[in-house]
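Hi R.,

Here are the chain sequences for the assembly we discussed:
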Amino acid sequence: MGVATVSSSPTSPSGGHLKRPGEVELLLRKGALVRRRLVILVGHGVLLAVAAASAAAILFVFYSIARDAVPFFRVRGFAEFFTGTRWYPSAHPPAFGAVPLFVGSALVTLGASLVALPLGVAVAVCLSDVIPFAVRQWAKPMLEILAAIPSVAYGFFALVVLAPLLQERGGPMLALAAWLVGAPLAALGVYVAGSSLVMRLPARWRPWVRPLVFALLAVGAVLGLAYISGRLKMVIVSSGTNALNVSIILGIMALPTVASVSEDALRATGREIREASYALGATRAETMVRAVIPAAASGICAAVMLGIMRVLGETMVVWMASGNAAQIPSPWYNLLAPVRTVTATIAGDMGEADHMTGSERYHVLFALALLLLTIAFVLNLLSEWALRRARRGGH
Amino acid sequence: MERSADMKRRGWLRATAFWVAEAMALALGAAALAAEGQPAKIVIDGSTTVGPIAKAFAEFYMERNPQVNITVSESGSGNGAKALINGTCDVATMSRFMKESEFKAAAEKGVMPVAHVVAMDGLAIIVHPRNPVKGLTLHQLRDIYAGRITNWREVGGPDRKIVKISRDTNSGTYETFKEVVMHQVPIAPDTEYVGSNGAVRQRVQTTPDAIGYAGLGFVDETVKALAIDGVMPDRATVASGRYPVARPLYMFTNGYPKLGSHLHAYITLYLTRKGQEIIEGIGFVPVTSY
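And here is the predicted structure of the full complex:
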């Protein structure tokens, strides 16, 4: 019959073997050992079951969608769905070419990414390193409020306010946007180009040449921007419910996600990197661009993926404000044309397409949902892989 | 506890009396209910076009009969038919007739749909008030929606691209437009789809280059209705059939409602003078001229 003892001193009162100081000696009854193992096993099992439940739920969703999507492919095959460009599910005979839907989703995602990603990362950089702490205390909550606005409110705004605005003043709005985006970029470009140009000249000339070069470049930039905005002002937007409208709104919706996650990643790099960089004599810009952002690259990559997935899965805004026209715009990058996304099709067609009254129409929606789910999975896996690679490789 | 024979007899008598009274009360209650006509609850679902009529009738009827509760939803003609077939509603309001597949599904479930034509609806073709075009032929309308005419100047308007608004394929309005105007010609892929009559009006009233179609009841001073084949849509032209883009509005029930029941009284409101005044007030055309 053994005795349960725990002893941490080298001179154990029970007289067991002496090991190194601090080592613990444990003697248990045989039955107690088995019971203990059983308890551990049961505990592990319960926790495993709980964790597996979430994985099981995902698998179940995948399975039930795939189960209802397979009948469509069995009847209509893959070729038409993935390569056809005519989407007429309610016509006789119906056409299920889903390429316009894919193009619509892709176009809208691309547009929203152009809005949200640069702006989101810039906002994150500002919040973490540029803005004073006191300002950050109220700036970050305001950013979070953007994320709390329901998507139907965004859709309503897009339909009732932004669409008529684009129709009446689309050209001038585009021109203004060109100025707002182009002016800082042009200023930066003029400064960088001017400085590097002046550096190439002999030192004697520099004091005279520098103002001249800068003035010339500035005038050139202003003229270029004026030309671009002049051309944009002439653009007539005949329909305000188009891909541009939705891109802007979706960009604003994805902005808080991208900014928050990026900012967390930037903060997580820690003070040491920044202090080391400053200690080496780097300017703030050099620190950010060359030290901090590369260190936070994996987190920023994850933020980008999250933003893209948010935009890809958004339904309400696109259903209300994208025009729902299942077409490929004539130059593919024409954001001023109405488009139709996969999500809006699923939401909009669900009512009429029913088991009883039209089975192909019903199953094709599941095929679209399966595709969406697969793409989300793949994007998720990609971001996981990128994160893991970044962690291993290190920046 | 020991009971005497006398007490036991009285206990039995009381119990019997109690149960007889209960049975009589239940019978009376059932009779009263039957006399009023079930259900004291009417569930209505279906078209967004017929919805306003159903709602107005419901308000009118509930005012006269406060013990009846009528709920009206508008989830589209297709959904209304589905609900009637599944037994989740008593009346399906539809702006189109039931399809063959819906009749088949109903018969399989033992539901016998009966159509009541409660009003006539002209589909008004609407444009923005600033648009100078006053009318189109049916053929031009078809060409516009088929994508063969793409600029307003081809039909006498300004040199602007035509923005086509259509109802989504869920709706009876779309089905009627397709049947009466398009005749199997597919609608152009750059047509924009919206979810309700109100949404069509909202798009057209904010888009100068837009053309759309909506129920006559949805035309107000914020949009302009076009004359089709020279005929403007109004009560007389729709009821007489001169306006080409017109359709009957239906309410479907499962079998003919039991005479004297609340459902019967509700469903025959359109035959009464008051009901037709209500229909006209909403902007539709009554089936008879009172």
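Chain B has ten helices and eleven strands. Residues 125 and 213 of chain B are 4 Å apart (CA to CA).

Let me know if anything looks off.

Best,
T.
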